[in-house]
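Hi support team,

I've been running sequence recovery on a batch of backbones for a student project. Most finish fine, but this one hangs at about 90% for roughly twenty minutes before it completes. I'm not sure whether the input is malformed or the queue is just slow. I've pasted the structure tokens below so you can try to reproduce it. Let me know if you need the job ID as well.

Thanks,
M.K.
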């Protein structure tokens, strides 16, 4: 015999209700019909599932062995029915999201996790790359939306929503020579120090404002850029939340400036294309990002 979803529903109702009459009330069926249906299931399976000698329906060892699997299948069926309903209402079967490598990933991933809990069967792809590459993927249609720092100019092909902000901090290694790392600087002095930046492997910088140094080295990974700064290879200008651990561990320090502050606050946007409006899942993701902001 192959157990059907109705058989599993009936089995769980008796276990959870503790009696055939309680299961009958939950299922809105006559107690005799529930008892007879369960007896038919037991006969076809060739095993007893409940001890009928007691006043209550006591699960047998065989029933207890089947119980966790039955619950798992019931939950999967529930999710499947819900997903079918969501698909009929316009939910995407798959969504691709991007995040700029320069950003702290924690808020983004928290929203992804919440989205997966809201839509358990939704297929979610997450891509990360330097900001110029992520925006290029967006324009090519590779991703539905991306989280990125606000640019210096508004691209009229894009639509965006503010979802947060972060401060860009100029940092330097504690291994740097004391004449640089150990004293306040004029911001102009950074021009003559090598800068470490996160940038595309192939694309030109769309926004060169963060580049201060006349000499700079590029990498496409924020962890690598931070490691390069920690190693004393140059200074960096990175999102405060993404470098908090390195600051707390004393591997880098904020540059103290004589003539200005250190910590330019930059808005963070979720960006998508005007000619490709957000679908149901992407709108849910945007809402979750806003709720967490």
């Amino acid at each position: 015999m192959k157990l059907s979803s109705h058989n599993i529903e009936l089995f769980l109702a008796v276990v959870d209700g503790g009696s055939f009459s309680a299961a009958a009330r939950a299922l809105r069926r006559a107690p005799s019909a529930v008892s007879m249906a369960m007896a038919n299931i037991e006969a076809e399976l060739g095993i007893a599932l409940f001890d009928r000698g007691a006043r209550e329906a006591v699960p047998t060892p065989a029933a207890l062995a089947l119980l966790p699997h039955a619950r798992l299948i019931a939950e999967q069926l529930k999710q499947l029915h819900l997903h079918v309903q969501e698909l009929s209402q316009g939910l995407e079967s798959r969504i691709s999201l991007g995040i700029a490598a320069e950003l702290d990933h924690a808020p983004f991933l928290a929203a992804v996790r919440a989205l997966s809990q809201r839509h358990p069967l939704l297929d979610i792809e997450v891509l990360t790359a330097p900001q110029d590459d992520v925006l290029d993927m967006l324009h090519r249609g590779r991703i539905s939306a991306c989280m990125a720092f606000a640019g210096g100019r508004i691209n009229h092909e894009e639509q965006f929503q503010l979802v947060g902000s972060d401060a860009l901090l100029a940092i330097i290694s504690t291994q740097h020579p004391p004449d640089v790392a150990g004293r306040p600087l004029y911001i102009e002095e950074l021009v003559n120090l090598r800068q470490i930046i996160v940038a595309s492997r192939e694309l030109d910088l769309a926004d060169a404002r963060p580049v201060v140094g006349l000499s700079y080295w590029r990498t496409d990974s924020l962890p690598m850029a931070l490691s390069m700064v920690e190693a004393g290879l140059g200074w960096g200008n990175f999102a405060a939340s993404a470098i908090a651990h390195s600051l707390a561990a004393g591997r880098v320090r904020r540059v103290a400036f004589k003539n200005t502050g250190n910590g330019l606050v930059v808005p963070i946007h979720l960006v998508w294309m005007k000619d490709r409006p957000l679908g149901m899942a992407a709108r849910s993701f945007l809402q979750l990002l806003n709720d967490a902001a």
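--
Follow-up from support: It reproduced on our side and the slowdown came from queue contention, not your input. Residues 246 and 252 are 6 Å apart (CA to CA). No action needed from you.
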